[in-house]
Amino acid sequence: MARPADREVDADEDDLWDLGVNANDDISLVLLDLPGDFVASIQSLADRVNSLWGPEPDNWLARFSGDPIGVLSHLSQHGLEDGARETIQMAEDCFPAGSRVNVSLKDDPESDDVWVVVHTDINADWEKAYGLFDSFVDKWINSASTTTQKCLRLTYHAR
Q1: Which of 14, 111, 118, 129 could cross-link to 124 by cystine, CB 3.0-4.6 Å?
Q2: How many other β-carbons are positioned within 10 Å of the β-carbon of residue 138?
Q3: Which residue did the predictor score with more confidence, 159 or 102?
Q4: Which range (27-31, 41-45, 108-112, 145-149) has the least confidence?
Q5: CATH architecture label of 60-158
Q6: pLDDT digit string, tens, across residues 94-104
Q7: What is the three-class DSSP state of 63?
Q8: Helix residue spans in the chain (DSSP H)
Q9: For the chain, what are the domain ranges?
Q10: Own/partner pairs for 50-53, CB < 8 Å, 24+ apart?
Q11: pLDDT, the chain, mean
């Protein structure tokens, strides 16, 4: 395909004309017809550009919450992100394999406050889970900041 002679184009657009691309083409279809080494060059360039912008933000809560963006926003607003990370890590360390930690937000029924609930489904019978949770709470009280203790609620369930 030749570009119209009466139209000025910049170098990048000129290269696309040489490839037979015009403004009405679906670029994904055009890329399918390009040689593999050219596509690899484009991917390499895209990777280099992305490295300048840095990686996607780490959404560490996605593994623990059905609403990681909402929970993370609340944690950040109240300076609780570090305390929540430490609490979750402590829960993972204190409870047996197969236990699951879930983080959610819950409205306080007696005020306008919103609590961050760290709930653990403990992979143990009730009696063992009770003892493990009690030890976890003791350890958490001795290490978590006062702010974290005021704003996070710890719950558990034996399974």
Answers
A1: 129
A2: 10
A3: 102
A4: 27-31
A5: 2-Layer Sandwich (3.30)
A6: 999 999 999 99
A7: helix
A8: 11-18, 27-32, 36-53, 68-77, 81-94, 126-143, 146-151
A9: 11-53, 60-158
A10: none
A11: 80
